[in-house]
Specification:
The chain is α/β, with parallel strands linked by helices. It contains 10 helices and 8 strands. The longest helix is centred in the first third of the chain and has 17 residues. The protein is globular, with a radius of gyration of 17 Å.
């Protein structure tokens, strides 16, 4: 697989420092009741959100993925334009768990184009093969030149920024096993591996479920994923 040929993030410092800084952000989010998990197992992610929001029919959770991902077939997901254009986005976000069109069924996926500006209580983001961590920085699959796209790398990075900031109360990242090279960077960046954190769910629930949620992502995700004067140390 070829990348864009550029060396993103090289100029912004030691990758170990970026991962450490991202980990500190993740830990602060977790302390405020916003856990970030990562797993290879989509079934485990589904079980986690269904157990966490069991008995709360007004909660909304769903699966998101990059429109350029081509490696999610093992999960039975197709985020291509032809597949996702049929989804009724309003019903996907608003219908209750009993509706076949609801995001809560966790059997359909939408992309950065459909979820931008909208939120879920918790999002499951399936990581694509279009953006990966290598040699201390993020890289992307080479794309055909387009007259209206001046910076394809920034466009792809921003797509993942959108995907990773849709959840108000948590985030689960699912990384396919092959090649799975992002898993280590995401864990070093502060995400908890889901199979280990699931054993702590009951304790976490008793401490956090009664809280009035104020979406800590409003402040910390702004500093974490914004691409302006405050840059995410990982991205």
């Amino acid at each position: 697989m070829k990348d864009e040929g550029r060396k993103p993030d090289r100029e912004s410092g030691d990758p170990r420092r970026k991962l450490k800084a991202a980990r500190e952000i993740a830990e602060r989010l977790r302390e405020q009741g916003f856990p970030i998990h990562v797993t290879h197992d989509l079934a485990a992610a589904r079980d986690y959100v269904r157990e966490r929001f069991g008995g709360e029919p007004d909660r909304r959770y769903g699966i998101l993925a990059s429109s350029k991902a081509k490696n999610l077939g093992e999960f039975g997901l197709d985020p291509s334009f032809q597949a996702t254009k049929k989804i009724q986005v309003g019903k996907w976000f608003n219908d209750g768990p009993q509706s076949a069109r609801s995001c809560c069924r966790l059997d359909t996926v939408i992309t950065e184009f459909q979820c931008q500006g909208l939120e879920l209580d918790l999002s499951i983001v399936c990581w694509g093969d279009d953006f990966w961590w290598e040699e201390g920085g993020w890289r992307m699959r080479k794309t055909r030149a387009q007259a209206l796209v001046r910076d394809p790398f920034r466009l792809r990075r921003n797509a993942y920024r959108v995907l990773l900031t849709r959840g108000r109360e948590g985030l689960v990242i699912v990384v396919p096993r092959e090649p799975g090279r992002e898993m280590g960077a995401i864990v070093r960046g502060g995400a908890l591996e889901l199979q280990r954190s699931l054993t702590k769910l009951a304790t976490w629930g008793s401490e956090q479920m009664d809280r009035k949620w104020t979406s800590p992502s409003q402040d910390l995700f702004t500093s974490s994923f914004e691409f302006g004067t405050r840059r995410n140390p990982l991205f």
